[in-house]
TrEMBL record:
GO-annotated cellular components: HslUV protease complex; proteasome core complex
Record-stated family: Belongs to the peptidase T1B family. HslV subfamily.
Coiled-coil segments: none
PANTHER family associated with the record: ATP-DEPENDENT PROTEASE SUBUNIT HSLV (PTHR32194:SF7), METALLOPROTEASE TLDD (PTHR32194)
Alphabetical keyword list: Hydrolase, Protease, Threonine protease
A GO term, aspect molecular function: threonine-type endopeptidase activity
Protein name, UniProt field: ATP-dependent protease subunit HslV
Length: 221
């Protein structure tokens, strides 16, 4: 009996942590403890860049180094996800259905998905976060029903999201620095700091109408 009590104390969670928080792994930089990856979106000078690393972790073990967590959906929509891969793909399918119902209306599609995600008995069990962007808007979608749009065009999620976000915001004011260079540098910093993020990046770039109109026209001689 005494031996059992000693063993029970030995495996007890540290003071101040719940049993669920103690067992959750990997731990995200924002404290959520769920999403062991980093996804970053940067919007600047008529370009939208979504970048993500390729590491898949299971506890303290790396099970895959080159997963593709950033994708191009339909015509002109970029999506990145953090969290359970199966859950994320289920949500991507639902988002694609909403985009088919409301073509060219990303905001409406995201709001509809967030409503269903929050209220549906099956969907609300899914553990993932989505970053979605088109030529006009960028959103972060969560299972709490949130549809968040960044004021500066920069947002990040996942275990290294806070590092990538801070680095990208610091680099955004550097003159003549391309948004793709900002995203690559910020993700490199996040990968250097976060053990659940590697340097195997997937990058998708979308040019907006602003970037096309800003290009100088060819002058005929």
């Amino acid at each position: 009996m005494m031996m059992r009590q000693v063993l029970a104390r030995a495996v007890r969670a540290p003071t101040g942590l719940s049993r669920a928080a103690y067992s959750a792994s990997p731990v995200a930089a924002d404290g959520s403890g769920r999403h062991g990856t980093t996804i970053l979106c940067v919007r600047k000078e008529g370009k939208v860049v979504v970048i993500g690393d390729g590491q898949v972790s299971q506890g303290s073990m790396v099970v895959k180094p080159n997963a593709k967590k950033v994708r191009r959906m339909g015509d002109g929509v970029l999506v990145g996800f953090a969290g359970s891969t199966a859950d994320a793909f289920t949500l991507l399918e639902r988002l694609e259905e909403r985009l088919e119902e409301h073509p060219g209306q990303l905001t409406r599609a995201c709001v509809d998905l967030a409503k269903a995600w929050r209220t549906d008995k099956y969907l609300r069990r899914l553990e993932a976060v989505l970053l979605v962007a088109d030529k006009d808007v960028s959103f972060e979608l969560t299972g709490n029903g949130d549809v968040l749009e960044p004021k500066d065009g920069i947002m990040a999620v996942g275990s290294g999201g806070a590092y990538a976000l801070a680095a990208a915001r610091a680099l955004a004011d550097v003159p003549d620095m391309d948004p793709e260079d900002i995203a690559q540098k910020a993700m490199t910093i996040a990968a250097d700091l976060c053990v659940y993020t590697n340097h195997n990046f997937t990058v998708e770039v979308l040019e907006t109408d602003e970037s096309r109109t800003s290009e100088p026209a060819d002058v005929e001689k």
